[in-house]
Every structure is written in structure tokens, then in C-alpha cells.
Amino acid sequence: MDEIALVKSAQKGDLDSFNRLVLFYQDAVFNLACRILSDDSLASDAAQSTFISAYRNLSQFRGGSFKAWLMRMVSNKCLDELRRQKRHPQVDLEPMDSNHEEALETPSWLKDDAPSPESVIEMKELQIGIQHCLDTLPDDFKIVVLLVDVEGMDYGEAAQSIQKPLGTVKSRLARARTKLQDCLRGFRELLPAGFRLGEEEGL
Predict the structure, then answer these.
(1) CA-CA distance, 196 to 193, in Å (whole number)?
(2) Triad 27, 81, 21: Cα angle to 5°
(3) Rounded distance, CA 46 to CA 34, Å?
(4) One CATH from 3.30.470.10, 1.25.40.10, 3.30.70.920, 1.10.10.10 for 101-203
(5) Is the overall model pTM greater than 0.90, yes or no?
(6) SS3 for 125?
């Protein structure tokens, strides 16, 4: 995909070019929103709102990474939603007990093409643990982890997405990873043996 050509064409009013950009990035935008908000419905609304805003503000895109531009936009919309929830709390964002059916709706973080029933249960429990630890992070830490460790952005793209210096991204990521590591110790029995080895040796 020639992203630059599509963006320039879309800026001239070519709706087909913009739709091609939407199709290319819609999964990444939705997945980031879903992981920030932990709610498919809210994530879908945020993603839709992001692309509407992107189309209306295409003239403000001055080059660089179009993906980073979109990720900044959806991150901001998700942060706005999180702030709204804190002002008007309606649902408990803490993970539910793994025995509840609703808990199994947590976004999938690990995939196995042919898992056994036991593996499915263990993976679901681990998903809940990972999502719980992500949700305990401050919002600005969580977004950096999602951009770099989940979406695979480099530090420069992440910095562009959150409009912060490169050093800020590296600092937040390092601190976030430390917090995640500490939190995941509480789910040690669910982690693969290779990830538990160092912890067990330290006992």
C-alpha cells in the first residue's frame, strides 16, 4: 500500500482512497481502543469516532506516520472516555472472577490454533490476569505499553502518537514494564514455566 499517495489523494477529496486507509488500519485502531477501554462496544465507538475525525481533519496531517497520527487520535478519544467514566462511574473495571461467563469476554491476548480444553481455561485465566495488570497501570503508562509492546511501534512512532519526547516514552515504558512484572507475580502459576523460572529461583 502506497500510504503517502493514498493520504494525498484523500486530502484532495478522494473518498475511495480514505476508505482504503480505513480498511488497512481499522483493526489496529480497534484493537488499541479495545485494550485501553476493555470494552468492545466502547472501543467500536472510539474507532468509528476516530476515523470520522481523521476524515474531517485530514488537512491537518502534515506528514510522518499516518498510523501514529491515527493512534494518537484514538488514544485521546479513549482517554476522554476513561475520564468520563471516572467522573460518572457506571461499571466496575476490575476483572471479574474467572468462573463468571462475562470474564471470558476479555479481549484475546494469546492464541492457540488447536488448544486443549485445559489450555483454553488456563489461557483465559492468564488473559484476565494480563488485562487486570494492564488496567492497574496509569493511563499514560498503559498507552505506551500498548503502542510499543502490543502494536509493535518503535519509540519514535510512539512518541509521535502521544506527542511526547522520545525520552519520556522510554522512561514510561521502562516503569510500566516494571509495574507489569510486579503485578504478574500474583499470576505466576498461570505463566509458562520459562517465565516463572527466574522467580522460582529467587525463592
Answers:
(1) 5
(2) 25
(3) 9
(4) 1.10.10.10
(5) no
(6) helix
Instruction: Give dist(CA 84, CA 75) in Å, integer.
Output: 14
The whole-number average pLDDT for the span 79-83 is 87
Confidence at residue 199, expressed as pLDDT on a 0 to 100 scale: 46
- Cell numbers for 71: 493512534
E strand or H helix at 42, and its extent? helix 40-56
pLDDT digits (tens, 9 = 90+) for 101-160: 444 444 454 454 555 555 555 566 667 777 888 888 999 999 999 999 888 889 999 999
Identify which of 191, 196, 31, 37 has the alpha carbon closest to the alpha carbon of residue 126. 191
Tell me which fold the domain 1-91 belongs to.
Answer: Rna Polymerase Sigma Factor; Chain: A (1.10.1740)
